[in-house]
Design goal:
This protein is α/β, with parallel strands linked by helices. Helix content is 14%, strand content 32%. The termini are far apart. The structure holds coenzyme A. The site of coenzyme A (COA) has 14 residues, from β21 and β22.
């Protein structure tokens, strides 16, 4: 008899999907136990990190329902204030530094892996924002006037305002003094040095208008 290979198509419809009305067999529950425990551990970790943040920074206003992944770093010093509104998610290794100034992150905003947000005067991020991985948002530059550029000459600051429902692509940088209007998109790797009107798509370094989110 001839050797032959039979490929069985994987039809997701045929996979076992228990409905809530079915009695789940014990073995199935046990099979899922590690997953349940992992979810529980994650939830406990999130709540613990939120508790630590609250306990450590009295000036911070932190909503009860926020998700803080492992490795997220906060620094709120020199009379600075931090507001994190409801249902925010801050992903792994993101860093939020607030010195003297104020950082406000609006409800349901996501801050991606490794992103850095630094507020020395004021950074305001609206509701429903989507900040991808490794984005930098800073409201300050080093002051580089004078003969020695690398001397610690202090900072120049100007507020950054990011509206509601803004998507910032991976590795983009938002520099001091920039306002990004509601419902706008910033392309990956962009450097935003000028204001972005609402409903616009900006990309490039420096970022330029490439389209509109509403036609
Ligand atoms: C900005 C973006 C949304 C635009 O997508 P789009 O509307 O499909 O736009 P197009 O691909 O048609 O590009 C339009 C023009 O802008 C340019 N462009 C698009 N994205 C760019 C970017 N990030 N930087 C520089 N130029 C860009 C294109 O080269 C094209 O130029 P051309 O007309 O001279 O050929 C997309 O390119 C992008 O950067 N997405 C971010 C992805 C990301 O970071 N995801 C993380 C997950 S949250």
């Amino acid at each position: 008899m001839e050797n032959s290979t039979i490929t069985v198509p994987c039809n997701h419809q045929t996979l076992f999907r228990p409905s809530l009305h079915q009695n789940l067999p014990l073995s199935f529950m046990l099979h899922r136990l590690p997953r349940y425990l992992f979810a529980l551990q994650r939830l406990a970790g999130q709540q613990w990190r939120r508790f630590q943040l609250n306990a450590h920074y009295r000036s911070a206003q932190i909503s009860r329902h926020i998700s803080i992944a492992p490795g997220v770093r906060f620094s709120v010093t020199d009379g600075a204030t931090l507001t994190l509104q409801d249902r925010i998610a801050i992903d792994r290794n993101a860093t939020l530094i607030v010195k003297y100034g104020h950082l406000h992150v609006g409800a349901r905003t996501y801050i991606g892996i490794g992103s850095v947000i630094g507020a020395q005067e004021s950074v305001t991020i609206g509701d429903d924002g989507l900040i991808a991985e490794y984005v930098t948002i800073r409201d300050q530059d080093h002051s580089y006037g004078g003969p020695n550029v690398t001397a610690r000459n202090g900072f120049i600051t100007s507020p950054v305002i990011i509206g509601d429902n803004v998507w910032i692509g991976a590795k983009a940088t938002i520099t001091k003094g920039v306002t990004i209007g509601d419902n706008s998109v910033i392309g990956a790797n962009s450097v935003v040095t000028r204001d972005v009107p609402p409903n616009s798509i900006y990309a490039g370094a420096p970022a330029r208008l490439i389209g509109y989110t509403e036609s």
